[in-house]
Amino acid sequence: MNCTEKKVYTVMEIVDMLGISRSVAYSLVRNNPPFRVLKIGDTYRIPKESFDHWFETGKPDNARADD
To answer: Count of domains in the chain?
Structure first.
């Protein structure tokens, strides 16, 4: 695997991908998100694999075991 391959998204990248406002994106990552969220200090990072699974299937990341 290439070391420069992106493994996480920022909240602003989620804003751009979903076409939602910054405040809606922060609400999504703070309030029972359907994908994993890492809080590092004052910032949030969303693991790409978890977000992409939710985005492509519409299922929460924890539903993968049921696939």
So the answer is: 1
Average pLDDT of the segment spanning 13-30: 97
> At CB < 8 A and 24+ separation, what contacts does 56-65 make?
59/34, 60/34, 60/35, 61/34, 61/35, 61/36
Q: Which two tokens stand for residue 14?
A: 């989620």
Q: What is the pLDDT of residues 45-55, one digit of tens each?
A: 999 999 999 99
- What backbone phi and psi angles, to 5 degrees, belong to 44? -115, 140
Instruction: Give a yes or no: residue 41 inside a domain.
Output: yes
Please give the model's pTM, rounded to 2 decimal places: 0.82
